[in-house]
Amino acid sequence: MLARYVRFSLALEFVAYLAIVQWLHFLYEWSYVPLAAGAVASVLASRLIMVCITTTIGYVTGSPRPAQYHVGAAGAAAMILREWRVVLMNNFFRLPWERLALRPDPQPGPTAGVPVVLVHGYFSNRGYFAFLVRALEARGVAPVFAPNFRAAFATIEQFAEELQREIERIAAASAQPKMVLVCHSMGGLAARAYLSVHGSARVAKLVTVASPHHGTVHARFGAGANARQMHPGSAFLAELCEREARQRAPECGVTSIYSPHDNLVAPQETSRLEWAKNVVLPGLGHLNILNSERLVAALVEELRECGVAAGS
Questions:
Q1: Which of 41, 193, 287, 292 has the fewest CB atoms within 10 Å distance of its CB?
Q2: Is pLDDT above 90 for 306?
Q3: Pick from 182, 268, 184: which is nearest to 218 by CA?
Q4: Which residues contact 160 (CB under 8 A, 6 or more apart)?
């Protein structure tokens, strides 16, 4: 559903630029070649400006960074360019054409391996995990599932119930009682909501990546009930923390991996959980972290700790 929506939005954008090019050609008799080049440049620049804006907001509202995490002007520029590259890849390929970007999920069946389930975040789909799935499978991790969820059009509670149904489906078909959840961004909140309601009987470990566990200032710019639930101090976050406090920490292991330079989760310390293991990967943006070999190495270590076979 989200992929069709994005394809429709891209088509509208294409038609709008086509109309502008035709209008300028008619009005000033400019050549189509420079007009087309200008249109392409505008498309690319608009995405770069968006990354620059989110990075600026993330910096202004960010958490204090220890000296060892300072990247300098050149490092910040390189980080912005890497994030921009991933935004372009996701915007024009992985999100609208997720079936081409990522192979279909394996057919669930009896397996000796502990299933690994990747859970995407807000306004995204399984296509975002194209690099991560290939990297994990190249290291012998299997089976790896990356389902689609209605994360863009549902509350986080509804997201958590969809996750519950997917977990039960995979557990029943694979004959494995437990699985590992690797969740990006809002997916980590959905997984915590799932654990607070259903417990950790089906979860060997939860690993969240760039998740706004205590909310993010960027949520004010998002649309939908789930964006409002990610506001710092929201009723959803307060209730979730209260349920976890009553139940104590989940029995399964929980690890939060995050970047102190995240451009969409700010202040960045919001990704830390006092009762979990926290792993810091500096110099990575919110989307680029999913395309990082350093993240893959951190995940492989976490997977090994709960008995998932994985090579280096």
A1: 41
A2: no
A3: 268
A4: 190, 191, 193, 194, 197
Residue 197 has pLDDT above 80, yes or no: yes
Alpha carbons 162 and 147: distance in angstroms, whole number: 10
Paired sense of beta strands 144-145 and 253-258, if any: unpaired
Q: Are 127 and 94 in contact (CB under 8 A)?
A: yes
Secondary structure, 3-state, the chain:
CHHHHHHHHHHHHHHHHHHHHHHHHHHHCCCHHHHHHHHHHHHHHHHHHHHHHHHHHHHHCCCCCCHHHCCHHHHHHHHHHHHHHHHHHHHHHHCCCHHHHCCCCCCCCCCCCCCEEEECCCCCCHHHHHHHHHHHHHCCCCCEECCCCCCCCCCHHHHHHHHHHHHHHHHHHHCCCCEEEEEECHHHHHHHHHHHHHCCCCEEEEEEECCCCCCCHHHHHCCCHHHHHCCCCCHHHHHHHHHHHHHCCCCCEEEEEECCCCCCCCCHHHHCCCCCEEEECCCCCCCHHHHCHHHHHHHHHHHHHCCCCCCC
Give pTM, 2 decimals.
0.94
* Angle, vertex CA 59, rays to CA 242 and CA 65, nearest 5: 75
Domains and CATH numbers, the chain: 1-312 (3.40.50.1820)
